[in-house]
Amino acid sequence: MEHMFNGEGDFEMNHWKIETKAVQSGYVPGNGDPRVLPLYQSTTYKYDDAQSVADLFDLKREGFFYSRLANPTVDAFERKIADMEGGVAAVALSSGQTANAMALLNLAESGDHIVAVSSLYGGTVSLFTNTLKKCGLTFTFISPEATGEEIRAAIRPNTKALFAEVLANPALVVLDIERFAAAAHEFGLPLIVDNTFPTPFLCNPLAWGADIVTHSTTKYLDGHASSVGGIVVEKGGFDWAASGRFPGFTEPDPSYHGLVYAKNFAAAPFSVKLRVQMVRDYGVPAAPFNAYLTNMGTETLALRMERHSSNALKLAEFLKKHPKVGWVNYPGLEENPHHAAQLKYMPRGASGVLCFGVKGGKAAGEIVMNALKLAAIVVHVADVRTCVLHPASMTHRQLSEAEQIAAGVSPDLIRVSVGIEHIDDIIADFDQALNQVR
Ligand SMILES: *Cc1c(COP(=O)(O)O)cnc(C)c1O
After folding, report:
1. How far is the CA of 211 from the centre of ligand 1 (A)?
2. Which atom of ligand 1 is nearest to the CA of 98?
3. Cis peptide bond N-terminal to 170, omega within 30
4. Which is it for the CA torsion 414, 418, 421, 422, positive or negative?
5. Cα–ligand 1 centroid distance for 216 (angstroms)
6. pLDDT digits (tens, 9 = 90+) for 19-42
7. Cys bridge to 270: 75, 212, 234, 399, which one at CB 3.0-4.6 A?
């Protein structure tokens, strides 16, 4: 129970394969300790003398003192995800929304600018265009398929980061991570990517040049639809000083007696600042119980992602041949425009989400959704149970029609999150539902 600012601890397991990390990383029991990561359902921690606590407050020593900043269960989960993504540190937060908000607010403030792709989860678009706009941030939205030249043209002197989803929800565009990273780095900017849909099992964006990875852990990492959560992972090694754009990292923080994150915490400055400044002040840590459940879910991530991906491919093949189906979008299909990028960035599978449209448009699609029996209509994605959702009237409802189109959401689009049930049962359910359309 000694850690807190992870990435600076004694944790070295990077030789393991990802399947092993998913099971073994993060928690290392000592002799006689519980074999399973314990749930430390405690807000606070006992110390023998006042000076120890004062030193913790001053960040002079590592340790737990209040669960708004760090908790041993959450800490172990953070170490696991950091290890799986190949990062130096991670900070777990209360939701995926918080992960994206805090990742940006950690490096941008009023008057600053972010370049983001237009095909994002609807909640992220709302966060950027409404709430972060009120905080004084401005955004330029570009196509996820922008050329290097188009990306560079969107960058301004006050730009602080590029932001994109690795596999867009629900447009299912596979990001050319290398292209976006190259453009960002040319200007001394970090590339932040939301890796929720691929998960670290299918893609490691940090290895392709991204600097920061975010997740809604609510989705595949939990995998069972039990816990809302988010996480931010730092690659390490980004040169905040050389960039010249980030005084928050290179100038003293008066709220910690003038320490300088890029100097005093050189191994993981982004994560330490995120934790001790953002999470301290906004108060948005992951709940220990949620971290406990999500950690347990992550143990089976590799098995689940293989099944999600193979089931989704089989359902996509079935749907594209069905006479009632107008179109299918799944990057795992050979004819899909993003198939080459999927093979490059996500060679082990295209994940479990596919989209399709029924002939007859939105009204016919509604008949199909209502007729499904095994697949439920739920506002969720990426858990073990097959489910469907209509983004235009649900997750992307708050967006304007133009924003919906830019996000890849057509009025007839049905998003399917293919579960890990037997594929024959899933296909039979979609077949009977499609046959309800006259
Ligand atoms: C769900 C989702 C989010 C938001 O996460 P919550 O945990 O619901 O707050 C962010 N990004 C993507 C890609 C998502 O799918």
Report:
1. 19
2. 9
3. yes
4. positive
5. 5
6. 999 999 999 999 999 999 999 999
7. 234
Could you tell which of 125, 216, 398 is best to mutate to test the pocket of ligand 1, judged by most ligand atoms within 8 Å of the CB?
Answer: 216
**Integer Cα distance of 411 and 393 in angstroms:** 8
Share of the chain above pLDDT 70, in %: 97
| CATH number of the domain encompassing residue 338 | 3.90.1150.10
Cα 231 to the chain's mean position, in Å? 7
- In the chain, the number of structural domains is 2
Is the peptide bond between 323 and the residue preceding it cis, with omega within 30 degrees of 0?
A: no
Token representation of residue 51: 């000076």
Note the pLDDT of residue 396: 86
The domain in which residue 53 lies consists of 2-298
Spatial distance between the Cα atoms of 312 and 100, rounded to a whole number of angstroms: 27
Do 238 and 104 belong together in one domain?
Answer: yes
Distance CA 19, CA 410 (A): 37
- Residue identifier of the C-alpha nearest atom 4 of ligand 1: 96
Query: Among 298, 324, 358, which residue terminates a domain?
Result: 298
In this structure, the answer to whether residues 75 and 210 fall within a common structural domain is yes
Task: Please give all residues whose beta carbon lies within 6 A of any atom in ligand 1, as ranges.
Answer: 95-97, 121, 123-124, 165, 169, 194, 196, 216, 218-219, 228, 230
Q: Residue 117's closest CA among 164, 82, 159?
A: 164
* Ligand 1 atom showing the smallest separation from residue 382 Cα: 15
Q: Which tokens belong to 226?
A: 């039990």
pLDDT at 203: 98
Structural contact between residues 37 and 292, judged by C-beta atoms closer than 8 angstroms: yes
- Taking 3-state DSSP, the helix, strand and coil percentages for the chain, each rounded to the nearest 5, stand at 40, 15, 45
Query: Rounded distance, CA 175 to CA 197, Å?
Result: 12
With contact defined as beta carbons under 8 Å apart, do 202 and 56 qualify?
no
Structure tokens at 134: 């009120």
Q: Whose CA is nearest to atom 5 of ligand 1?
A: 96
User: What's 276's domain CATH number?
Assistant: 3.40.640.10
In 3D space, the residue among 60, 14, 79 whose CA is nearest the CA of residue 264 turns out to be 60
Task: Note whether 120 and 34 are same-domain residues.
Answer: yes
Q: Do 276 and 425 have their domain in common? A: no
Distance of CA 352 to the CA centre of its chain: 15
Shared domain for 122 and 8, answered yes or no, is yes
How far is it, in rounded angstroms, from Cα 112 to Cα 105? 10
For 33, the token pair is 């300790």
What residues of the chain score a pLDDT lower than 70? 1-14
Structure tokens at 329: 């979008």
Beta strand residue intervals within 294-365, DSSP E: 325-329, 353-358
